[in-house]
Each structure stands twice: as C-alpha cells, then as structure tokens.
Design a protein that fits this description.
Two copies of one chain form a homodimer. By secondary structure, chain A is of the alpha+beta class. The first copy, chain A, has three domains: 24-103 and 133-295, 2-Layer Sandwich (BirA Bifunctional Protein, domain 2), CATH 3.30.930.10; 310-414, 3-Layer(aba) Sandwich (Rossmann fold); 432-507, Translation Initiation Factor IF3 (2-Layer Sandwich).
C-alpha cells in the first residue's frame, strides 16, 4: 500500500505520530525521540545522544575510522578552544563563522556579594572561541611540524565535538554542538592536494552507500556554497524521503589560503621555499539524521544491519517456566551469534528486562532492529521461533523452524542491507527529473507541499547569480555540479534561458 | 648501572636531556615532547595530542571501553555546556569546581566599529559552563528516564573532553582541557551502588596493571580528598619513578546527594517513591602521564606492548638496491604480523620514510617501540636481522636469524609486557616503607630532593585534621586508606602519636 509516494504499514495503527504523510518534519522528530536515538535537552540546541543512538554512532565511527586510516591519515587531538587572533587571520574563514561562535570570556565563577548568585569572574585577557572547525589551530601545528618536502604529505584526522551556534536548532540535523571527524592534510603540490580532496569524497560516498545504505550524488559545490576560505568544495548529496537534499559529507581543497595565513612552508628538494597546499574534509552526527530520513517508516526507525547495534533481538515470552525459555533464548543467541555477517560477528541480544513481551517487540521495531525473535514455551515445544522482519511493511510474524535459524537469520540480515540501499536508490532515481526544461516547469516541480512532490532536478545552468532570485523564492539551491556531467551542446539554462555552463543538481535542502 | 636508584643506559650519551637524575620534572616534559606524545600549545594549558600519543590513547580507550561495556554500561553523549543553575544546585559540587570553570558568555563575534577588532557580541541570557564533569547534566537526564525500579540499575558511560581551568598546567598531568571517560550509574539501593563503585575501581586496577603495566594500590580517599558532592571516593594510586604518587583513577559513591538535588526518584515494587543512589567514576589522558613516568628512561619512552601503536618497527637500510630490501622488509612484516600476541594481531610497521636509518632507529627508541629491526643488503645475504629490544638498558643490537623471527619476536613482545609490570611492581614494593614509626622518621623519609629518596609510607594514622600541618609542611598527603588494612591493636598515629584509626598510605603526589 502506497500513499503519497510513502509506503504505509497496511491495516495497522502506525506507531509514529504524526505519520510521514501527515507532517514529515514532525514525524522525523518523533522517530528520533521514540526510537531513543537523541533528544535536544538541557541547553538550547544541544543534544543528548542516547545509548541506542550512540551505539549507531559507534558503528558508524568504527567503519569511517577504518576507512580514514586506510587512506593513510593518523588520528590526533587539538584544543577545543581557539584564540580570537587565530580565527581572525583568514578573512573569508572568520567572515563565514563569526555569527555562530560560542565565546569563552571568563575562567571562574564567584558568588556575587549582593545577590549571592554565581557570576562569571576572572576575565580572560583574550576571549577564546569554542572550535566551530579546526583549520586555524591544526594549520598552525602543521606549520611547526613541516620543514622539508620529506614531511609531506601530512595526513591528520580528528574525532571531536564542535560548536556552531544555531538559532533554529533541529535534532541531529542542525545542533549547536555536534560530533564529527575533520581531516586535515598538507601537500607539496596542488595536483596532489586536489587528488586527496577527491579521494576523501570517494571514501565518504563509499561509506554512505555501503554502510548507511544511503545512495548519494557526488559533485562540486557552486561558488556561493563553498566552505569559508576554500578554493573548491566537493560534497555528496543524499535524497530524503520527502524529496529534499541533505549534504552528507564535504571535502575541500583550500589551496594556499590557510598555509599562507599561517606560514606553513616547506623546503623543496631544490632548496626553494614553498607554501603547502591543504585540504580539509568532514562528516558528522548529521549523517544519523540522513539515516533516519532515508530508512525510517511510520512504525519508527529501520536500521541497515551494518549500523544496527543489535541485528537480532530475542524476546523471551516467559510465564511459568522462565528458566527454560531463557535458556533456549541464550542457546539461540550463542548459535546465531557465532555466524559472521557483513564482515563482523552477528550481533544478537536477549532482552531480559522485566517488561511485557509485546511492549518489548514494539520497542525493538520502533528502534529499527533488523530482526525480532519471539520465543515462548509453546514455540519451544513446536520447535519454532517467531520472527518479525523489520523490512516487511506488514511486520508479519513468521514461524521459522528452530533448526533453520542458524542458516536463515544471517541471510535475512545480509539481504536487508542490500534491500534498504536498493529502495533508497530506486527513490533517488525515480524522483530525480532530467525533464525540467524551462523556468515554468522548474517552478511547478518545486511548488506544492506534499511530501511526494518535488525531488531533485538535473538541468543545464548558466551559473549566473541572477538565477538566485527564482531559486530563493522557491527555497531551492544548487546542491552540486555532479561529476558525471551530461550537458548537451548549446543547452540553455533552465532558469534564465541563457547559454548553460554546467549541468547542475537543484533541490530544496536540509 | 644504577645511579640514584634510576637505571642508566651505560656508556652511551643519554637521548633525553635532562636525565631523570638531573631533573625529573623537566625530564618528563622532554620525554613527552621528544617522543612526540603531546605538547602544550596554542592555548595556555591546552594540549595537542600528536599521532603517536593519540595512537597510545586509542589502544587504551579500546581496552577500557571493552572493560566498561563488559561491566554492563552503555555509552552515550551529553552536552558540552552546562547551564549555571544546574551546577549551582549541589552545594559541595559547585564549591569544588567554581574556581576552575571556563564560562561561555556570548554566541557571536562582531567587528568593533571603532577599532575594527573582533569582539564578543550577542550576550547569553544565562552563562554556560564548559563541563568540568557531568554529574549535574547526566543526573537530570537520569531523572527523566527513570520511573520505576524496572529502569534500574541505569549504567551509562561517556567518552568526552572536559575543561578545568589550570593556573599551573603540566602536559598530560594537569591540563585545562583533557580527554576522559566518565561513568554514571543509578541504583535502587545503597548496597548495590557501593558494590558498583568498588566493581569499577577494580576494572581500573585491572586495566592499570594488565594494560599499562602500572601496579596500583586501591583504597578509599580520606574525607578531605573526596570528590565534591561524594559520600565516599575510592582511588587507585600508582608510584612514579621519583617515588611520588599519581592518582590513576577514581570511583565515587554519591549517595542520594545528586539524586535529591535533581529529583531522581523511582517507584519501588511496593509503590513507594525513593531517591536513587548514584555513582560516578573516571579515568583520563592523565594515565598517559603515569605511563611515561612509570616506564620511560633516559633514552625516551618505553611502551608496554599492549599500548604500543607499533610493537615492531622495521627500518630498511637501503643504498643500492632499495627494492630488494623493501621487499624483504615487507616479507618479514607480513610473516610476523600474522602472529597473535597479547590477544591481538602483532602490530608491525615498515618505516619507508626518506630519512637516514640511524635517525629512524633512534626515533623509534625514543618513541618506545618495543622492538626495532634493521635490515640491509648484507643482513639479507647473511640471513639475519638486527634487533634492538627497548627493554635492554644497553640497547644492544642483536643478530637474529631470519628463520627464527616468526617464533622469537612474539615471545619477546609478550615477555616485555610482563617485564615492565614486574619492574614497576618491584619499585613500588621496595620504595614503600612500613617501618616509619614516628614523626621524626616521617619527616626524614619525606625530606631530601633526590629522585630516589622518599616513596610511599604505610603507617597508622589518627585521621585528625591536626595532622595536616606536618603533612602540608612536607608536601605530603594521605593518598588513600588501602583496602588491605594491616593495623595492629593499639597502634599509634605516625604523626600525632594518638591512637590510630586506620592504616594510611602517605606520599607526595602529582
């Protein structure tokens, strides 16, 4: 059953309120809350990432960290605080971030003598910015560490929290504090630095598709969307279930802008002094937002098995003989957990909590565990186990012979990863139009509020800033200039009708 | 050769200046810098953890994380910023931390119209504290998540950066920003919470000894040294090579102090409402300081193999036929890397950098890699490899037949872990005195500036605050009341001569 382009669980009260069709943004918030992934709490715009959400993040982190290390980068850690004079040095950079910086001005609290309230005391001689990104501080360390061409390339990655003050925060998508990795590299030549920028974008594309099951379109950002201080910014763009784009990773070639500002020079083989060419690249907890908006449904989260903290959850149905049922559940967990699926041991968990079995089953469905097994005394007698597959829209209970579990469950888990990717790729393909050929069709495509209206448009673009007016009016932007250009000779800009320079990817975006 | 109790590399210019005997504190700073572990840079008191240091930290983190998860705790993440009113609520807690808190007061930078300088703008209605620890914020989340006794125990751990403003910073030991894990748990009963406090201290003891090869003395902190807001604080105390103590991990029973302040209540089986009993426990990058001060020598760092990012480094000596030598080096790396040592595949690295072989060998010795292999054309012809063992004081080069590497290297690595622990345990034992019986002997023991004077004293103590004067004068404190008490009937306090209440561990401390 399909409604408004969004598949619905048939004949069943939806678990998440509102549904996607009713109110997509609110549905997203509800899924993130009800699946216990994360919540905005305590401080405006700041997030608590709950154990289930953090478990997802740990699996993402492990896979991404492996890929980054395989690219040759080493992890390191740099200060949270950045002196004001550091950040002021690269003009475009400070311009881009000044409006969203948290500033530390004091280093002590004291009781106010009159009111008795705690107030900031001991003012700093120079305010410190809480890092919004670390080019300026890591670049200065690079300048110290790099002397000769032999020290290049220098490839560093950092896992850290960063702060960008958000006036309109949204959980996972736009939060004042978020977790991320930021890679920073320095190279002897422009060619080598540009190649690294491209290489890391490819690492991100591969990660998004094979780990998160989120297909993406890689390309270059238009000038107006470049990272502050970059010469060229690349991105991967994913499509959410409402047809909007989400930037899922960026990789920047910074030229010599930062190396000149920081005196990052090296002595070449011929003795000459040169400024290094640098790059930076990052992905963040925002990717968990992409995961939710790509795969979740009206019953809650659906997790691709590679990022599911538990791939199989066993719910024991215990009344009279709890010990026997628990023993049988543990036996299944041990047997099935010995299998290897998607390059790792299958992750199985027995839910022993003191709660009603039905409540547990729905909790794991809401949390997106790929397979939920129920096991009671009658099942044991009958030699069967009841299996719910999270990718079945009806969430039907299927009886599987106990003897077949060890061969069948790994297959089901493995195929679910591929199925989620295929479904998302099908959506990306079917909702990307290449047939929008003039501004009227462009306006029509991006008007309408139904979650199933709109999507991506790939069309010729003149790259003239004058086209911003129409885009701004519709809330649309150029997401990227896709690498796989298909621009016909003499093609005209879809907005202005003027000769087109590139084929662009247009969309509304998060 | 032993000088001042510190073994010296014989007949060889020491790599680190000054040596331990010359100036222990300065030696420590030099080792941390020269081994490229970390450096204070950019912001007063803040640390850059360099790739080699971060590699050590990652291995520590992985082992600790496994142990914490095995204890039943899940990882999660909570906001970096804490509202002022949160931190003000637990009186002893705010008292303890007020003097060292970094305070965020603004969320934007603007150009000053007159000077053109960037200045903080957009003042926050309530200042935010950068977390010095997270009891107040995690406790409030617990209060929301806990309803019934069925929700208990709640066991959470967080890996995060924290900030405590340091007026006299020292790299790794006392830094304004540091990395740590902080565990927070809530329980239905005092007994259960106290048992968890003890259980996690035991996790720390086991980690320090088996992973870091740092033997420790577990015990309870005296009242004056308790965590602000705690009912009871436990710690493990390690002895550095200069005889001083370093607190290597703490675990606190917080009673109902925080749960009352935050309204963390649960409904019991009988329907009654109760406040939970909470604990918190933490270890930090400070442990890397303990690692250095326990194992390093006058040639630099010495890493117990479990935390050595490379356990075996192969330095190819290439002149005429680099390809053949590199091929042979890769062959050794592949063969030796297939072995499993200390529960993990042996970590082998071939150093292909364009640098002189002697320079590389000394770099890896300074960085503490357990085994350094050198391999040139003549070695290949002779069927041998030159091995330097980092635990050999003379750093002698030993010729090992190529055919024996696969069996011999894993043994050497494995035994080095045990040897480092045994050496540290021997020091802890021999420099802990149980024979100091009155205040004159106490003064004598703790006077004198030689690195080999002093150590730990275990002696009867009356626990009277009046004993603080003598201790303060000597720069000594009670590190803990060891769990394995050996207090004779009628024993007299080593300082006051009054009847003793406990056997205490006295030491100077970091």
């Amino acid at each position: 059953m399909v409604k408004n382009g969004l598949p619905m669980a048939s004949g069943k009260k939806a678990g998440i309120s509102p549904t996607r069709a009713e109110d997509f943004p609110q549905w997203f918030q509800s899924v993130v809350r009800d699946a216990e992934v994360a919540e905005l709490d305590h401080v405006r715009g700041c997030m608590v990432i709950r154990p289930w959400g953090y478990g997802i993040w740990e699996l993402m982190q492990r896979a991404m960290d492996d890929a980054i290390k395989a690219s040759g980068a080493d992890n390191a850690y740099f200060p949270l605080f950045i002196p004001l004079n550091y950040i002021a040095e690269e003009a475009a950079h400070v311009e881009g971030f000044a409006k969203e910086m948290a500033v530390v001005t004091h280093h002590r609290l004291e009781k106010d003598a009159d009111s008795g309230d705690l107030v900031p005391a001991a003012e700093l001689s120079e305010p410190l910015v809480v890092r919004p990104t670390s080019e300026t501080i890591i670049g200065r360390s690079f300048a110290k560490w790099i002397n000769s061409y032999r020290d290049l390339p220098l490839l560093i990655n950092q896992w850290a929290n960063v702060v960008r003050w958000e006036l309109r925060p949204r959980v996972l998508l736009r939060t004042t504090e978020f977790l991320w990795q930021e890679g920073h590299t320095a190279h002897a030549t422009e060619d080598e630095a540009r190649a690294k920028t491209l290489e890391m974008l490819e690492v991100y594309r591969e990660f998004a598709e094979s780990v998160l099951a989120v297909p993406v379109i890689p390309g270059e950002k238009p000038e107006s969307e470049r990272f502050p201080g970059a010469v060229s910014s690349l991105s991967i763009e994913a499509m959410m279930q409402d047809g909007k784009a989400l930037q899922a990773g960026t990789s920047h070639y910074l030229g010599q802008n930062f190396s000149r500002a920081m005196g990052m020079q090296y002595t070449a083989e011929d003795g000459g002094q040169h400024h290094a060419h640098t790059t930076s690249w990052g992905t963040s907890t925002r990717l968990m937002g992409a995961l939710v908006m790509t795969h979740a449904d009206d019953n809650g989260l659906r997790l691709p098995p590679r990022v599911a903290p538990h791939q199989v959850v066993i719910v024991p149905i215990t009344r009279d003989e709890p010990a026997a049922v628990l023993e049988a559940a543990d036996g299944i967990a041990a047997e099935v957990g010995a299998a290897s699926v998607l390059d790792a041991p299958l992750r199985v968990s027995v839910d022993r909590r003191e709660r009603k079995p039905a409540e547990k089953r729905w909790e794991w469905i809401r949390k997106g565990a790929p397979l939920v097994l129920e096991l009671g005394e009658r099942d044991i007698e009958g030699g069967v186990v009841t299996v719910t597959r999270r990718n079945d829209l009806d969430l039907a209970r299927e009886q599987v012979p106990r003897s077949e579990l060890a061969s069948k469950l790994p297959q089901l888990v493995e195929s679910m990863q591929a199925e989620y990717l295929a479904a998302a790729a099908e959506r990306l393909g079917s909702r990307t139009s290449r047939d929008v050929s003039n501004v009227d069709e462009f306006r029509e495509f991006f008007s309408g509020d139904d979650p199933d209206s709109g999507g991506f448009v790939r069309a010729p673009w003149c790259a003239d800033p004058a086209t911003d007016a129409v885009m701004g009016e519709l809330g649309v932007s150029v997401r990227c200039i896709p690498f796989d250009q298909a621009l016909a000779d003499g093609a005209e800009c879809v907005i202005s009708g003027a000769p087109a320079k590139v084929e662009a990817l247009f969309a509304k975006a998060y």
